[in-house]
């Protein structure tokens, strides 16, 4: 009996990994061809360019159910910068449900609470806690109620502390070392990774994280750079084969592409 149970569990595990949800319509402006399993997305920008807001907006799309054109998936968020607010996520969801779908306050709140039950937040307050969480990803990504997307806000939070303790290194070199650990787990679990990162000035091209077509360790598949200037906000989206620029604005309802 025990052998049969183990075999069934193993089969179910393989089926679960092979049946990850589609990310085709997660955000067509940023990902016209969708987001594939195992792919890695970097959202880079200076302070007040909307990195966390954009991450929350993508999270909203993923958490809301298919009945309101969401993906209805489970998300694991490593929260290190502590700029992410559940109250802001609640507000983004509420705006979509009321303005786009005509939901009442009670209807919207019910949908939001059900959606938020699919969000797991791990708060990390120092580098040691981050490393413990990263080395425990197998347990979090491969458990029975499978996580379908991993997010980090922000992967660069403890860079300066690490640099003071371990000597000079570029931010991208630091991020590559973390990606080596993270992607070992996300690749195995067949889930995409989206993370935010502060921009580094004076970086070396040699150290820059490569954009690749395939899911490759220590590399990314999409780089989204958010910038601000006197004329407003600009977004640059890069892949291994192309680059596109467009403007955006930030409101209480999120990031809006122009």
UniProtKB/TrEMBL annotation:
GO cellular component: centrosome; Rad51B-Rad51C-Rad51D-XRCC2 complex; replication fork
Alphabetized GO MF terms: four-way junction DNA binding
Domain of life: Eukaryota
Domain Rad51-like C-terminal per the UniProt entry, residue ranges: 30-197
GO BP field: DNA strand invasion; double-strand break repair via homologous recombination
PANTHER family: DNA REPAIR PROTEIN XRCC2 (PTHR46644:SF2)
Protein name: X-ray repair cross complementing protein 2
């Amino acid at each position: 009996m025990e052998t049969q149970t183990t075999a069934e569990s193993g089969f179910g595990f393989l089926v679960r990994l092979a049946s990850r949800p589609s990310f085709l319509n997660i955000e067509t402006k940023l990902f016209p061809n969708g987001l594939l399993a195992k792919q890695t997305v970097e959202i880079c920008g200076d302070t007040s360019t909307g990195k966390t807001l954009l991450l929350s907006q993508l999270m909203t799309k993923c958490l809301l159910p298919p009945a309101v054109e969401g993906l209805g998936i489970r998300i694991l968020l490593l929260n290190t910068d502590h700029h992410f607010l559940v109250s802001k996520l609640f507000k983004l969801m509420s705006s979509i449900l009321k303005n786009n779908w005509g939901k009442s306050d009670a209807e919207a709140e019910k949908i939001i609470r059900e959606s938020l039950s699919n969000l797991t937040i791990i708060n990390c307050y120092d580098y040691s806690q981050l490393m413990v969480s990263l080395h425990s990803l197998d347990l979090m990504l491969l458990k029975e109620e499978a996580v379908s997307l991993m997010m980090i806000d922000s992967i660069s939070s403890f860079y300066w502390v690490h640099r003071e303790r371990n000597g000079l290194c570029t931010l991208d070199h630091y991020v590559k070392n973390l990606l080596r650990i993270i992607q070992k787990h996300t690749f195995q679990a067949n889930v995409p990774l989206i993370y935010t990162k502060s921009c580094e000035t004076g970086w070396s091209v040699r150290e820059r994280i490569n954009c690749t077509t395939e899911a490759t360790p220590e590399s990314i598949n999409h780089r989204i750079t958010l910038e601000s200037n006197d004329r407003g906000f600009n977004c640059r989206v890069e892949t291994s084969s192309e680059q596109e620029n467009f403007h955006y604005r930030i409101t209480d309802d999120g990031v809006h592409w122009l």
